[in-house]
Design goal:
Layout (H helix, E strand, L loop, with lengths): L1 H43 L4 H4 L18 H13 L7 H6 L3 H12 L12 H13 L3 H4 L17 H12 L9 H6 L4 H12 L3
Helix pairs in contact: 1-5, 3-5, 6-10, 8-10
Length: 206
């Protein structure tokens, strides 16, 4: 009886050690896999530099900053461009030939970069009005505190001021509709001044 208990305890201990070792091997593989994806994304992103800037830090208000953006959001936007749910004369042709792996690699690469924002020279009154409007329309319920974003909800803090204005206008006019109606609903009653104030506030968040 005692022998069976000892053997059972020994077997249990052996299984625990095997599980621990396999867990260690699995964890050990993670960094190399992530590194490979980042390197692949870096190479593929070279064509993006002309518009989105080195490492995704755009210096033009015509193009969004991608550095530090949610990887899931970038992937889904590329997929929408590819499949026609979102349209842009520059991005749609670029996304047309991307594979799922290409889009994942690019998303992982840009998400891993450090955002370098370009603050707009907005006056304090406009920024404060934007803060109040953001609180009024409950922006942080989706975009989180500091507009840091989450999963498929983009990070917009520090984003280019003209780009924020353009996207809010496009949502309001239904020119951009790949948002399941959420942003269309939020922007429906925004005035032009509201949009400019929101953009000033969000752009200046660091």
């Amino acid at each position: 009886m005692m022998g069976r208990k000892l053997r059972a305890a020994a077997n249990s201990t052996r299984r625990a050690w095997i599980a621990l070792l396999w867990g260690s091997f699995a964890v050990a593989w993670l960094p190399s896999t992530a590194h490979a994806d980042a390197e692949a994304g870096k190479a593929k992103a070279q064509v993006c530099v002309a518009c989105h800037g080195p490492m995704g830090n755009s210096t033009s208000g015509d193009y969004p900053i991608l550095a530090g953006q949610s990887a899931r959001y970038i992937y889904l936007e590329l997929k929408d461009f590819k499949e026609g749910r979102r349209s842009d004369p520059r991005m749609s042709p670029m996304a047309a030939n991307l594979s799922k792996e290409d889009m994942q690699d690019l998303a992982d690469y840009f998400a891993a970069q450090t955002l370098v924002s370009v603050p707009n020279k907005s006056d304090a009154a406009s920024i404060e009005a934007g803060r109040k409007k953001a609180a009024e329309v409950l922006c942080t319920m989706c975009h989180l505190g500091g507009f840091a974003g989450q999963n498929e909800i983009p990070r917009v803090s520090g984003q280019q001021y003209p780009y924020i204005v353009k996207q809010l206008q496009d949502f309001r006019s239904h020119t951009r509709t790949n948002d399941a109606g959420n942003m269309t609903s939020v922007t429906r009653n925004l005035t032009d001044d509201d949009i400019r104030n929101l953009a000033a506030y969000i752009n200046n968040l660091q």
